[in-house]
Every structure is written in structure tokens, then in C-alpha cells.
Amino acid sequence: MTQQKELGMKCIKYMLLCITAIFVLTSALTISVGTTIYAIYHDIYFFLSPNAFSPAIFVIAIGVIMLFVSLFGCIGALKESTCLVNIFAVILSIVFILEIAAAITAYSLRNEVSQFLDKKLREALPLYYQHGEAQDAFDFIQYELNCCGVDSYMDWHAVDPPTGGTGISFANLTVPDSCCAQSHMTVVGEETIVECHKIYANGCLPRVYYLVNQSAGLLGAGALTICFIQIIGIVFSFSLASSIRKAKIERERRRWEIQERMINAHTSLNPNNEKVAPVVYVPFQGQAGA
């Protein structure tokens, strides 16, 4: 029976070590996903609210915490320390709650972000030639997302370009150079002339919204996936702590039995077969003579 308990504890210990190794990998993956989403949001930060960065920062922090917490599980499993394993399980439970909160926050911000994006893009469009930050932000999304304007390239009809400014004249309106989808370079003497033959017709709002929406969904799905792995880790951690506690109690009991046997063996060479000697009463000689 004792050997079965020892074998079961070893199985749980090695399973916890495997799960701890998985935690290290998922922690690195979580940090990479969080930093990637944060970098995407940072590229279009001009059109986003500050709350949009919260889930990404939250996921990065959770990944860093999990990376350090994995040390408790690994050291506790190797040294069979009930205290370390319990600390590992408790911290995992706290991180589990935080990840659920991060997933809920990421999904709940999707509707808020869509409304904020629509408002911010329409407000920033007239400021394109006046505000350098708005110009850089629009050029970035139009270059990278292959779009032009908010709903379509016709939105630039309401924006008057400055006198002598650069741009592409198309259908009685001027659009930024970032709206060019297909261009042709012609060398005339020492001068290179770039002519745009085609511009992007689709607006940027649906594409920016899709990018932010998919990023938030990826954060939420990643957090929920890690939560599932953490549930397994929590169960194995508490099971290992219970097994270690029972094994230590069993070892103490066996040590106590061995000590008792050694003490009994020291007081008598053969205590099991020893018989109690009878008590013999001898009369006093003086009384017998009387």
C-alpha cells in the first residue's frame, strides 16, 4: 500500500513538472502575443482610446508573473515541499482569475473600440494637412491596410489640400500619396517622375476595425486557452501537496515504529518470547522456629 502511494506521488510530481514546463512555454507565448498586439495598437494609437491598451498590458503582465511563478512549482515538486507547491497553486488560482478578467475586458472593449474608431477617424480626416500626427497616422493605415479615406476615397473631396502641396489628382479631387495602389516611375533626364495609375477605393474604417477586433479576439482566446492549462496545473498542485503531506505522515509513523522496536529490543533480547517470572514468598526463619 505504501509503495502504491509513493508511486502515485511520483507520477503526480512528474506530471506537475511537465505542466510547469508547459507554463514556461505558454508564458513566453503569452508575452510575445501581448507585445505583438501592443505594437499593433501603438502603430494606430492616434485612433484608439487609452483603454484599448489595457488588455495587451494585462496579458504581458500575466505572462511575466507566470514565468516567475513556474519556479515555485518546479522547485516545490523537486524538493517535495508542501509549502512551495501550495504557494504555486494559490498564485495560479489568482492568475487564473486575472486572466478571466483580461479575457472579459478584451471582449467587452470591442464594441467601445468600434464606436471610438468611427468618431476618431472622421475627426482626424479634416486635420490631415494641418496636424502632422494625424497625417502620419492616416498615411500609415492607408499604406499598410491598402485603403483610402474613412468610408472610401471620396471622403477626401471634403478636405482642401494646401496650395503647392503634394498629392494625387483623381476624379476632380486630391488624395494623399499614401492612397496610391499602383504607380509607374519614369526617368526624364536626371529627374524621376512617379505617376499613380490606380488608387485604393476602399475606406480604412472597416479594415482598422477588423484589425483591432481580431487583435482583441486573439487576446481573449489566448487568455482562455491558458486558463484551461492552469486549471490542470492547479488540480495537480493541490493533489501533489496532499500526497506529499500524506507521505511525510506515513514516513514519520514508520520511523516512530522503528524507534519503538529498537527501544523494546534494547530492554530485552527476546521480548516476544519473554515470560513473566513467578514471585516466590520465602518465610522468615525466625518466625518458622517459633
Automatic annotation (TrEMBL):
The keyword Disulfide bond does not apply. It is a multi-pass membrane protein. Its main location: membrane. It comes from the Eukaryota. One of its GO terms (cellular component) is plasma membrane. The chain crosses the membrane at residues 12-41, 53-78, 85-109, 218-244. InterPro entries: Tetraspanin/Peripherin, Tetraspanin_animals, Tetraspanin_CS, Tetraspanin_EC2_sf. The keyword Transmembrane helix applies. Keywords: Membrane, Transmembrane, Transmembrane helix. It holds the Pfam family Tetraspanin. PROSITE patterns: TM4_1. It is found in: Membrane. Belongs to the tetraspanin (TM4SF) family. This is Tetraspanin. It comes from Bombyx mandarina. The lineage of its organism: Eukaryota, Metazoa, Ecdysozoa, Arthropoda, Hexapoda.
